[in-house]
TrEMBL record:
Signal peptide: none annotated. Residues 182-338 form the Glycosyl transferase family domain. Its EC number is 2.4.-.-. The keyword Transmembrane does not apply. PANTHER family: GLYCOSYLTRANSFERASE, TEICHURONIC ACID BIOSYNTHESIS GLYCOSYLTRANSFERASE TUAH-RELATED. Residues 20-170 form the Glycosyltransferase subfamily 4-like N-terminal domain. Keywords: Glycosyltransferase, Transferase. GO terms for molecular function: glycosyltransferase activity. This is Glycosyltransferase.
Length: 361
């Protein structure tokens, strides 16, 4: 057995496809991998995997006390667990990683999946932003290897912290493509967390005059607000809330969708420089998408035109939704382009670079 690696996240492991993919790939490469996440009251039993999984239950479920409690519980757990490599994922587990690295003297890897100080929930809260910025800075300073998910973030982090940062994009595994019969009523799909700045309010409002449905797969802080918006607008027959969906079922739902939604508000550099996994998930499913014209998405769409790029306003989103329904020539072209892009944008192409990074430690 190769070196042991532990990854720490604050997500529910069953729904964290990115970390499941990373942990599984490194386990297949010969590493002994442990993935540590949180256990929520509604968490389902962990699914079998080729790596170890451990969940931590907290008294506090959100806010500063949750993050503090979770990191303290991680540090205490590390007192009785030894690993060759400590993988800290994002600033929200950085405190535990930094402290453990200080006294264990083992390599620390920082996976900067998000630009935490620039997230919409943080960017206008001065003191909260300072705390996350301090943790992020210390994580970069202490790490032996750092990587992130987009070229824009690589440039940002390298310029700010004057340290090398590697690019490991968040791409799905390549899946066999089998065209599915379209449902009787076409539906657009959104997959991901129901958080501030994801464009969901505008998408729901835009659907009022679009002859299709919108399926929302995910959960989060905005769930109740969005359900109330749907009820107030009388759109219960057009907007379908699926909640958190298991990865296999999500793949099936996405492949049967008419198109995907990849909308964000420009509420901080974390979103503006992002490269969300759902962009690639839609491509791998062989469906076009409606996407914001932020730098990474523009760059990829120039390489393979798979999306209608539109600003996140109700009117522009509505126009894009209608265009895909009414202009079949455009829809067909974008669909055909996804079939070409999926051969390049997949984890089989990206994963070996991850393995190479960890082999260098």
């Amino acid at each position: 057995m190769g070196k042991s690696i532990v990854f720490t996240v604050t997500t529910d492991l069953n729904h964290d496809q990115r970390m499941q993919r990373i942990a599984g790939t490194l386990a297949n490469a010969g590493f002994s991998v442990t993935l540590v996440g949180r256990e929520l009251p509604q968490s389902l039993p962990l699914k079998p995997a080729n790596f170890k999984q451990h969940r931590i239950s907290c008294i506090f479920l959100k806010g500063p006390l949750f993050y503090l409690e979770y990191n303290l519980r991680l540090i205490f757990w590390f007192l009785f667990q030894k690993f060759d490599i400590y993988g800290t994922v994002d600033a929200d587990t950085a405190l535990a990683g930094i402290i453990t690295n200080f006294w264990r003297r083992k390599p620390l890897v920082f996976d900067a999946h998000e630009l935490f100080p620039e997230m919409p929930e943080v960017t206008h809260r001065t003191w909260v932003k300072k705390v996350w910025a301090w943790l992020e800075e210390k994580a970069f300073q202490r790490s032996d290897v750092a990587y992130t998910v987009s070229g824009s973030l690589v440039h940002y982090f390298q310029k700010k912290y004057r340290a090398p940062v590697h690019l490991i994009r968040n791409m799905p595994f390549r899946k066999p493509f089998t065209p599915s019969a379209p449902p009787s009523t076409p539906y657009y799909i959104y997959q991901g967390a129901l958080n501030v700045g994801r464009g969901l309010e505008n998408a729901i409002a835009a659907m009022a005059s679009v002859p299709a449905q919108l399926m929302i797969c995910g959960d989060g802080p905005l769930a109740d607000v969005l359900r109330q918006q749907v009820q107030d607008a009388g759109l219960q027959n057009k907007i379908i809330f699926k909640g958190n969906v298991a990865p296999d079922e999500l793949s099936t739902l996405t492949a049967s969708a008419y198109a995907g939604l990849m909308l964000l508000d420009n509420q901080g550099l974390s979103y503006y420089y992002s490269l969300a996994n759902k962009f690639f998930d839609y491509v791998q499913a062989g469906i076009p998408q409606i996407c914001v014209p932020f730098p990474e998405y523009q760059r990829l769409n120039e390489e393979h035109e798979v999306a209608v790029l539109t600003n996140n306003t109700v009117e522009e989103v509505r126009n894009a939704l209608l265009m895909l329904l009414n202009e079949q020539q455009t829809y067909t072209r974008l669909t055909q382009n996804t079939l070409k892009a999926r051969e390049q944008w997949n984890w089989e192409q990206e994963g070996p670079r991850l393995v190479q990074l960890y082999n260098s430690l």
